[in-house]
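In pairs, describe these two lines:
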Amino acid sequence: MPLSKRRPWLAAPWPPARVERVLCYETASSTEWAPPFPGSSFTPNVYVDIEDVLDQKIEAMTAYAHTHVSEVKPYPHPRSYEAIAVHAHSRGVAAGMKAAEAFALVRERIMKQGGEPWA
């Protein structure tokens, strides 16, 4: 398992890396099982409007429907087509959008003009 998966705060974008933002993504049927303890639950603070691509996201899940062990389950499972849409709309409501993906900002570097880090 990569170090960044075990300790995401160590995914620090030090030079010469050009990574400016590190975000954690909310994974359906994994994230909601986290215990409600500080540091264990997913607390989004970045939302991306996906209204125009939500149908494509749901269609992309069909690639997992016919695998050896299907990732797509019947509703109300979090990885059902219906639940994906419901969750996107719920996150959208939280962000003032029709549909959204939620992320947690782990680290962000704001570069000075010219792309070099502040000294």
Q: What stands out?
A: The beta strands are 21-25, 46-49, 100-108. Residues 20-105 form one domain. The chain has a mean pLDDT of 82.
